[in-house]
Amino acid sequence: MRIYVLMLLLALLLGAGCASNTDRFIDFSKPRPLDKNSSYHVSDQRPIRIALATVISPNETIAHYRKIADYISKHMGRPAVLIQRKTYEEVNMLMSNGDADLAFMSTGAFCAYRGLTEIELLSMVEHEQTTLYKAQIIVHKDSDLYSFQDLKGHTFAFTDPLSYSGHMAIIELLKPQNIRPEQYFSRYIYTYSHDKSIWAVATKAVEAASLDSMIFDYAQVRTPELTANLRTISYIGPLPTGPVVINKNLSAQQKENLRNIFHTMHEDPEMKPVLKGLLIDRFVLPNPELYRPLQKIYDQAGGLT
Predict the structure, then answer these.
(1) Using the 8-state DSSP alphabet, how is residue 47 labeled?
(2) What is the extent of the structural domain holding 147?
(3) What is the pLDDT of residues 78-101, one digit of tens each?
């Protein structure tokens, strides 16, 4: 049996040795034409991937983002895929890994971005004729807390670790005292939603929270029964609104097309209520200088961790 197996292997080796060089090697100097059905032949037609973290009324706002994705698809002449994540860091990782082409980022998430894939600003949000907002610290209306100093030893709700209004702004307030949140507050949590931070304070699950002032204004209209129970004790800012960013590796033509789509979107009557539902009057040309001071703060904090 052993002799038989050895003879069979020898025959196979001899057969392979007799094969022509053209059977064993690929001549890259003579490329074959691409199959017309190949996805690489129409790479510009692959879906454009749009990432976001819905931290404001996710069940309501996701429908608006879907309409924006449909609008982009229609005007780009290619499919668009919406990729929803829970946290800002997950969106940053999608961009870093090259798994998304475009992202709706928060101010803090953009300033914290230190990903492997370079990104660039496409546009920024304008709301009520300004591209600025503030971080807002809220407490329950019945509490005896009236300043940030009063919050020492009390419970607090952050929004997201990468959020500026919902986290980093508070870290900056504590920095001169060389105190960490765990030393200042008796307990703190991350809600991963501005809505939940409002709910947590309104229902006394925590005693205070910080969040985006634009979103608080939105909540006053959408959930007045909650905001009626709240009181603002401090503002921090002004701060630049969250930007729309794109993968820097996109072609110049794709970038220009996307820029035109975003900066004329508000002119479409069908898109006006969609943008309004997201607290957006229109998208405007971004001002990178507005983000630089905050980027320095995130640099000191380690950027994307």
Answers:
(1) P
(2) 132-240
(3) 999 999 999 999 999 999 999 999
Domain match, 69 and 195 both: no
Out of 240, 273, 292, a domain closes at 240
- Type of residue at 7: M
Predicted pLDDT at 302: 64
Residues 6+ away with beta carbon under 8 Å from 38: none
User: Which CATH number does the domain housing residue 150 bear?
Assistant: 3.40.190.10
CB-count burial class (<10 Å; 0-12, 13-18, 19+) for 58:
middle
Q: Check whether 175 has a pLDDT greater than 70.
A: yes
**Which of helix, strand or coil describes residue 57?**
coil
Give the integer Cα–Cα distance in Å for 190 and 272: 33
Ramachandran category for residue 191: left, alpha or beta (phi over 0 → left; psi -120 to 50 → alpha): alpha
Do 101 and 61 fall into the same domain? yes
Work out how many domains the chain is built from and give that number.
Answer: 2
